[in-house]
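Narrative of activities, Objective 1.

The group set out to show that a structural description can be obtained from nothing but a protein's sequence at a throughput compatible with the screening campaign. Below is one input-output pair from the validation batch, recorded exactly as produced.
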Amino acid sequence: MTHSIKHLHVNQRSGFAMIMAIFVIVVVGTLMALMISLSTTSLKRTTNLYLNEQAALLARSAVEYTLLAISGTDRTAGCLTRIDTVYNPNGAATPMFNIAVTIRYIGLSGGNAANECTLAENVIPNARVSAPESKGSALIDVVITSDPSLNIGETIRYHRRTLQKL
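Output recorded for this entry:
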């Protein structure tokens, strides 16, 4: 009789151990799924931050390049109004970013004298913002857009507007 009571107690105990083991497996599995999810989110956020910083630096460089291009352009023959280019790091086959620069000139009379552009070339005439010794100003809009071939899920777009003296 004592043998059957002892046998019954062992069966109840092993059932409790199985429930506890299933509970531990479920908890560990849930924690691992949470870790993978957080890791994926962190990786995506880091990639987006990196690409956004790249776009911001490219925008600053595009403004400097535009000022150099404007200074090298003979404005009596026509003004530079747009620059379109791409950024290919290390000579990659597909571009990482598309760069579009639009230039509008401020404070020029709109004639065709030295250092002036025609009104059809994005000139904003305004005598109150320029002095006789001024060569005018340029309103430069730079738009950096990530190339769709990057497959990052969402497009990175960065816009920078700056007013520069010529």
